[in-house]
Design a protein that fits this description.
By secondary structure, the protein is an alpha+beta fold. The protein contains nine helices and four strands, in the order H-H-H-H-E-H-E-H-E-E-H-H-H. It is 55% helix and 13% strand. It starts with a helix and ends with a helix.
C-alpha cells in the first residue's frame, strides 16, 4: 500500500492547483476524468461556482479549530475526487478551511480515474464513491483514518429517500444540496475531527 500511496502523493495537486484546474475546465467546457459528457461538463461548471461561494462562506467551528491548532503530529490529507462530483464541491472547501487552520496538515488532491490503485483501497460498499479523504501520518506513513464520500446525515437522507421513492433522482439531489447548504459544513468538520 505504501508504494500506491507514495505514487499518488507524488502526482497530487495542492488545493489551489486543483481549483485553478477546475476553473479552466469550466471555462473550456471540459471536465476531469474519463467521462467527458455534456452532463459531467455541466456539473463541473456548477461545482466551480459552488466551491467559489463556499470558499467565502465556510467557517471552521470553534471546537474543531481548537483541536486542529493543537495537533501534535504532521499529516497529509489526501483527497480522491473529480471536478464533476457534487459532493466534492460541497466537501473540499470545508476540508481546505480545516487544513488552513494549522501547518500540521498538508492537503493534497488526486483525481480518482488517474489513481485506480488508490481508489480500490478505499471503496465504499464496493463502489468508487468520491470524495474520499485519507488521513496519513506524515512520519510513519500509516493511515490514521478516512472520510467520505459524504457525512452520515447526508448519506441517511439519500438512504431514506431511496427507501421511500425507489431511486435517487433529480429531486433527491436537490434535497441533498439543500441539506449541505443548511448544515454549513458542520457535520463534515465534526466527522473528520473525530478521526484525529
Amino acid at each position: 500500500m505504501n508504494s500506491i500511496l507514495n505514487n499518488s502523493i507524488a502526482k497530487s495537486k495542492s488545493y489551489q492547483e486543483y481549483r485553478n484546474l477546475t476553473a479552466i475546465f469550466a471555462q473550456e467546457g471540459k471536465t476531469s476524468g474519463e467521462n467527458q459528457s455534456p452532463e459531467y461538463i455541466n456539473y463541473t461548471k456548477l461545482n466551480e461556482s459552488r466551491m467559489h461561494r463556499l470558499e467565502k462562506t465556510i467557517k471552521v467551528i470553534q471546537d474543531v479549530e481548537l483541536l486542529l491548532k493543537n495537533l501534535s503530529k504532521d499529516s497529509i490529507w489526501l483527497v480522491l475526487t473529480e471536478s464533476w462530483c457534487g459532493d466534492a464541491a460541497q466537501i473540499l472547501p470545508v476540508i481546505n478551511k480545516m487544513a488552513e487552520v494549522t501547518d500540521k496538515i498538508e492537503l493534497r488532491i488526486v483525481f480518482r480515474d488517474e489513481n485506480e490503485g488508490l481508489m480500490n483501497l478505499f471503496l465504499t460498499e464496493g463502489s468508487k464513491s468520491i470524495p474520499k479523504l485519507i488521513i496519513i501520518d506524515k512520519e510513519t506513513q500509516k493511515i490514521v483514518g478516512d472520510f467520505g464520500p459524504r457525512p452520515k446525515p447526508a448519506k441517511q437522507l439519500l438512504l431514506d429517500y431511496k427507501a421511500l421513492h425507489g431511486a435517487i433522482d433529480a429531486t433527491a439531489k436537490i434535497e441533498l444540496q439543500k441539506w449541505y447548504l443548511a448544515d454549513k459544513g458542520i457535520a463534515i468538520q465534526k466527522e473528520i475531527a473525530a478521526l484525529l
